[in-house]
Design goal:
The structure is a homodimer of 396-residue chains. Chain A is α+β, with helices and mostly antiparallel strands and 396 residues long. Chain A has helices spanning 75-94, 123-137, 144-154, 214-220, 224-244, 248-267, 278-294, 322-329, 338-341, 347-367; strands spanning 5-12, 14-18, 23-25, 30-31, 35-39, 46-53, 62-65, 68-70, 106-112, 166-169, 182-186, 194-201, 299-302, 309-314, 368-375, 381-383. Chain A folds into 2 domains: 5-188, Ribosomal Protein S5, domain 2, CATH 3.30.230; 194-375, Alpha-Beta Plaits (2-Layer Sandwich), CATH 3.30.70. The first copy, chain A, is built from 10 helices and 16 strands.
Chain lengths: 396, 396
Amino acid sequence: MSEIHRASTTAPVNIAVIKYWGKRDPKLNLPTNSSLSVTLSQADLRTHTTASCSSSYPSSDSLLLNGSPQDVSGARTQACFRELRALRKKIEEQDGSLPRLSEMPLKIVSENNFPTAAGLASSAAGFAALVRAIANLYELPASPTELSRIARQGSGSACRSLFGGYVGWDQGSAADGSDSMAFEVAPAEHWPNMRAVILVVSAAKKGVSSTAGMQTTVATSSLFAARASETVPKRMQEMQKAIKEKDFETFAKVTMMDSNSFHATCLDTYPPIFYLNDVSRAAIKVVESINVAAGKIIAAYTFDAGPNAVVYYLEEKEKEVAGLFKAALGDKEGWSGKRGDAIQANSEGLEKAKADSGVALDLLKEGVRRIILTGVGEGPIKTEENLIDEKGEPIS
Amino acid sequence: MSEIHRASTTAPVNIAVIKYWGKRDPKLNLPTNSSLSVTLSQADLRTHTTASCSSSYPSSDSLLLNGSPQDVSGARTQACFRELRALRKKIEEQDGSLPRLSEMPLKIVSENNFPTAAGLASSAAGFAALVRAIANLYELPASPTELSRIARQGSGSACRSLFGGYVGWDQGSAADGSDSMAFEVAPAEHWPNMRAVILVVSAAKKGVSSTAGMQTTVATSSLFAARASETVPKRMQEMQKAIKEKDFETFAKVTMMDSNSFHATCLDTYPPIFYLNDVSRAAIKVVESINVAAGKIIAAYTFDAGPNAVVYYLEEKEKEVAGLFKAALGDKEGWSGKRGDAIQANSEGLEKAKADSGVALDLLKEGVRRIILTGVGEGPIKTEENLIDEKGEPIS
């Protein structure tokens, strides 16, 4: 029997504070603007992926995600496979003693440690793990920067999950996308006390669905061009400076303004795209109340393409931010475990907030299904824990 | 006893299809962009105002609205009084035989035929009626255009209620506001079959309130400048052409896009301003379904600074548009009377729409409190029906 080659990694989710929305090249996933994200801890949210290859495998590549076979024939997955195989082929050609892994079928097994139904963009962690695992399998000398260029072709925001900490994605200008890659703004340890509480909105409260499409925004929004060409470039500079100086107030204000700007261009799309609903609005209102009560900005909301709120705050303000949400939403799933146990329910803060945002708090109680507690974390981590056994079978 | 001088008028509500939002001069109510509206029929929605003056009145001016005394000391009301008195003074100076009305205290009584609680911007009709009634009282030779310049200082959008039909408001460029006035795009009889159904959202469903402020948008939205300087000027041209050519599809598309653009700049404000809620989103979805079912655009939504939807359509599409809403919301207040009786509940259309927008229809049923049926109408109408009697007392 032929040898089974295996390598495994975990990769993180990232939540942008300057949003990616709009492609200048849909095939290559080249964005109309740069973006910036915080990589979240893999202790809380991660994709675990084992890539393997063997000449004994059935001839076509395969991918099993959370136990379900996935279609790998799509152009995006194929682009990642093709690019990684080409890099492997190059080193095989330089060293004839290396096994010809680039010619063997790939078998990939992937698992998320978070419910897909949570509505978190899992494709970023998924493609980052896929690319990193295959790069490990192929023993490629490629840097995270080079791998981010490949992962980008799988899912745009996946490129940012190749790094930990605070990560930018430079839109680049080359037509072939060769300079559209992620870069490290600062590692997690530079500003390790960044935390996030994610308010996951019940499916029942999601309301009217939108037929999303960032390309419809590019084509129809009269305000989009100003966002891409003026607003975001300015904010990219402000945000990098804020992160380098650990200036939370600026970080938070730019985060909130950029989330609003992104959703504004969605609303300005024809037909309009809505991701924020009344529960999201309530989360915004409660964050505003928390900041008013603190007399300065200590919490920042941001929303991806869905109603779930991600609220960033610093560990030292845990009581004022997460503690208030715990007092309001303590009966929801997600408060157990090491992070949740450490958070004190801030009933006093909640009482004060009720005066200003009682309706909003009621809406949150009604509409939030679960919470996720997390914080800034590392980039992909190599692991010896394989999801495929020595015989090439998925371990379940 | 001194003579009681009286004059009365009614004035209409208008609902913009290209929105006014942002002032370049807050004191003079000079806008950052031009706007355009449809004047609605006074049979359905109107303010009725009697202006009177007498040397026997108490020395200070007064205003009674729906039976409640109003503060007239505000700069906006004072500006209207001052400008109208100056015009009267001029003709008194030219003709010494005229009574010195400009020197007498004003007593004004006003009544709306629609509930204030309906959340309709009543200030436009209110200031238009106030200015028109005083102009009638003073027998001013002023044209609606000249009066619109005065009413604008009371409430910006009031200037458009001095005309019937389809009305533009030119932003103007003079620092003193002398060229920021309303103008007739087309009279009501040019395109008389324009109808509107207004979906009034329950107070209970209004959700999180916003601290509104168009000046906050001007100051903080990074997208607002593009709207004011590029988007709106282009749409003003498209809209005037569509009205002149009675091209409903263009009229409707520009109406919807401009409503979305306005609310997008509200969302891009810091802190964000929300007027649309889940019920508003549901109305948008149902309008989209109606248009998809028709295979062309036969209905257009627009939202002012609140969650109520105004849906424009042409009389010949009454069954497809208003009829569908009647089938869905027939149990709400507002379907009785001449307009409502003529509308056939379109149960067949509703059944079809359910497949595409069942959730949205449920949200509408839950969140709409009443409907108002109306259509394009005339400008202010002089009336002999006074709300103040010969003795100077309000008639209740």
